[in-house]
Amino acid sequence: MHSVEVGHVTGKGIEPVPQLEEKGKRLLDLMGLRFGAAHIEFIVRGNVPYLVEINPRLAGDCIPDLVELSTGIDMVEHVMDQAVGERKSVTKSSRLSAAIQFAIPKIKGTYVKVSGVEEAKKSNGVISVSVAALPMHADHVSSSYDRLGYVIATGDTPDEASGRAEQAIQKLRWGVGNIEAAHLIGRE
């Protein structure tokens, strides 16, 4: 069984795990990664970080969009500038908090339609709503490719941004055909 992230949040008020940034920098030095973007991922249990991955790339899952919404920093622009030899200063401005919530299939079957997209887009703080190409067959959830879509929302706090994204994702209603014996995914 694989873990699949169901959401992310960034913004003011989130307390980082002590020394996490320093540990990340040390890992980059050990790997010899001194240029460009780096995606370093940890799972934290009991305030202890466990390394998941280090990659010389920007994070996926729309995380650069969340960072730009919450800090004003366009990570893609800065990576491109660095790639062509331009040095520009990075100025962080504390703005809103931002969150993404993913729609995860809950029933085994073929997802053939979705409604509520316009309603979700009109929800408080919602910046964007995206839905996967349908039809889409789901019999398990083992990677980010198994997600049905996402909502990005902002708020004054991380909790508000997350709550808005979660509320908007709940407005999406899925039509499922070929339901496989009414089994719920992950409940076998």
What does this structure look like?
Keywords: ATP-binding, Ligase, Nucleotide-binding. Residues 19-84 form the ATP-grasp domain. The chain is of the alpha+beta class and 188 residues long. It folds into two domains: 7-83, 2-Layer Sandwich (D-amino Acid Aminotransferase, Chain A, domain 1); 97-177, Aldehyde Oxidoreductase, domain 3 (Alpha-Beta Complex), CATH 3.90.1170.50. Helix content is 25%, strand content 29%. The protein contains five helices and nine strands. It has helices at residues 20-31, 63-71, 75-83, 117-121, 158-169, and strands at 7-10, 39-45, 48-55, 97-103, 109-115, 126-131, 136-138, 149-155, 173-177. A four-stranded antiparallel β-sheet has the order 1-4-8-6. A three-stranded antiparallel β-sheet has the order 7-5-9, with no helix packed on it. It has a two-stranded antiparallel sheet with strand order 2-3. The longest helix is centred in the first third of the chain and has 12 residues, at 20-31. The mean pLDDT is 90.
